[in-house]
């Protein structure tokens, strides 16, 4: 059994050195340590994953990739030895060059959660659970899902890159169930980020009180109207739209496959000129990393600049196929050593503008403030569906009654072209694990600021 | 690409189980179970119709649970999940699990004992198990051929994977069982294009047995849906309308809502919308969990706690009959497990109660006959994202692929607009259930016509 990073790297180097020089190959060590704690009326349950680790080897023969993975490096070595003589090389596709990088960084936690005993974590989660319950007798249940994790990845390739990163993440999700006036409904909130126990501690008393108050109001709320209305999206809804439409819609494999709706709008307007949308794994949020799973150091990608679609999100093969060597910013990601690499987003967000929320509200005669984004999806004809947990009706420039379950849908480009105000910061992020198709979960965030669109199709949802 | 896996007989589920069991005994733990999970995944990934990647993944991981009695009614539970194979790391994990028993207090229940009787359903294709790569390559060529022959739409991407899984459960009562199962996953996208307008149909899912990989029939059907979507119109007005859900949507909606409301956990936490022996649906609606149905994605002999999977009638002719139980909630509620404990490694490792395979009993008339009797309705084939709130039942989903039904005929293809409603209320507003059913992953379900859902239109 190998233990130290030096031993791991030495074995990975053996494999890389066994590859004939005309092939490109890389190998990734993937290790994940996770603590999960769940709390509800049924009690507390926790599960520890001390370290789930494995290796994935990938080789490119000029036409396609072959990948094999195994948790045991010795067995992987043997398998690589078996397949190498069977591979033919084809000079069809030359991967764009990537600089040789050497890098070893562990993200430091302000409050190291590995130093906090599990008992202490459970106690604090229990206190939080009781605190929410005692706020109001109409709360019928509270589900708390807590997870802290440390992901370690080591990457080596035949071009000489040697990279290592250690990424701590923490997330906590609260779900309340309320029965009020005979109606039962639920509400959600979450806090997450890259870092340590300080993320848990960032949950304030005011946030919890507001969460409980919102939960009760949502249970009592009516459905929203349906139709085409002006709307204001809070940062979670605005961010979810940006994540779904641009975080997913411009992943460059869909461009190469001629699948994406957005290909036709490259370097053309996709939003009003007030809108800037970026993707960056360097924001400190839940979707952070230093280098991607192809060993490319991450840089901020401006996706939409002053309303113009300017960049796609690339893996190395897509940047090669589209001949965009200067746009490879480190977005080739895999879920773990049992999943392939795809171009993926990281932290996708709407950049701040110069409005205030109050100004936005005052400009709407009849519309909606849509808040607490729940989920969103972009379709390949450029349409979008984004559902939120709640919202407010706006009448004559003022927030009126609470509504629940708002769905925003329709053509995403029309919606974004109709944005006529973007609020000042700060940017707020929400962390989730995002999938691509059936699976391929990776940590990301969606975020942004308030946006106002003068024309949006909304309905109950 | 293949390699000789047999060179490493020591890397086997049986041998690792022996090593872990030995370490548990060394730690003097009297009540424990070990759930081992050996997964091998072979995949082919397509860019348009060309293979862009071939993958071959393997992992052998396990959960160790140790139990420590606290008093007559409660016990501590410690659960650890890892894939280390060295005795020293296993022993360290066992000690961590032991420490966790001080914090996770659950009602005391017994672990399953040997001697129960189990069904023996087909859970994998024996001929493919030994040589999945050859099968994937030949089936892949067949799929490529099907894709190339498509006239109305072209494919843009896809994947085809084969999962081989071995699961073993052993415990301190002397219980020891190994099961093999396999399944395929597929995902393809079809694009149709006309005069600058594009439409896509994106089928994806899991299939248990090779005989159900009917790509020669499915691919043209999928391509036609992409083509029809190209000619689709948004709904023309806001209205309350009868809606027929395709089997894929029946599955998604009912698994999320009924699956939750029928769980003993929801009942125990007083959150279930269902009350036993009360009417929860129309009187011609029967819904069953069947863990043994042929070809069902979750079909197998036993659940994650070793209890036999079975057939449980949840709703019988509209009346709520049985909840679904695992060991914990069976103990809390003084009932017996129904074989619905599911330990999902990807979900943090805790056991949850889930429907194994959802079955809705078919009705008497074909979909064609149901459609013929509709004056005005909509047949929805696909929502891009159907995600009802399990607690309230509310949902709102935009229409991806649907057809208007007018005077008994399918007329305009529909795309856009939103259907909204509440699944718990819809169960009491079922107008008809079709005679034909479809096996969709872990469900065998018909088309269902629901009365009076809200259709919202973008057109003013």
Descriptors for this entry?
heterodimer; A: 461 residues; PmbA/TldD fold; seven-stranded mixed β-sheet; 10 helices; globular; B: alpha+beta; 3 domains; twelve-stranded mixed β-sheet; 38% strand
The number of strands of chain A is 21
Q: Look at the helices and sheets of chain B and give the structural class.
A: alpha+beta
CATH topology annotation of the largest domain in chain B: PmbA/TldD fold
| Main beta-sheet strand count, sense and barrel state of chain A | 7 strands, mixed
Q: What is the approximate shape of chain B?
A: globular
Report the CATH architecture of the largest domain in chain B: 2-Layer Sandwich
Explain what the structure shows:
The complex is a heterodimer of chains A (461) and B (460). With 461 residues, chain A is an alpha+beta fold. Chain A has helices at 5-17, 73-83, 118-135, 198-201, 205-220, 235-249, 252-256, 316-321, 357-362, 412-417; strands at residues 24-40, 43-60, 65-70, 102-106, 139-157, 162-180, 183-194, 227-233, 277-279, 301-305, 308-309, 332-333, 342-343, 347-350, 366-378, 383-395, 398-411, 419-422, 428-436, 439-448, 451-460. In chain A, the strands form four sheets. In chain A, strands 1, 2, 3, 4, 5, 6 and 7 form a seven-stranded mixed beta sheet that branches. The longest helix of chain A is centred in the N-terminal third of the chain and has 18 residues, at 118-135. The model of chain A has no long low-confidence stretch (mean pLDDT 95). By secondary structure, chain B is of the alpha+beta class. Chain B folds into three domains: 5-221, 2-Layer Sandwich (PmbA/TldD fold); 222-251 and 362-456, no CATH class; 259-356, no CATH class. Chain B has helices at 13-26, 87-100, 126-129, 132-148, 215-230, 247-261, 264-268, 327-332, 367-372, 423-426; strands at 31-47, 50-69, 74-82, 105-107, 154-171, 176-194, 197-201, 204-207, 239-245, 287-290, 311-316, 319-320, 341-343, 351-353, 358-360, 376-382, 394-398, 401-406, 409-414, 418-422, 430-439, 443-456. In chain B, the strands form three sheets. In chain B, strands 9, 10, 11, 12, 15, 16, 17, 18, 19, 20, 21 and 22 form a twelve-stranded mixed beta sheet that branches. In chain B, strand 11 (311-316) and strand 12 form a beta hairpin. The longest helix of chain B is centred in the first third of the chain and has 17 residues, at 132-148. The termini of chain B are far apart. The model of chain B is unreliable at 2-7 (pLDDT under 50). Classes of the chains: A alpha+beta (461), B alpha+beta (460).
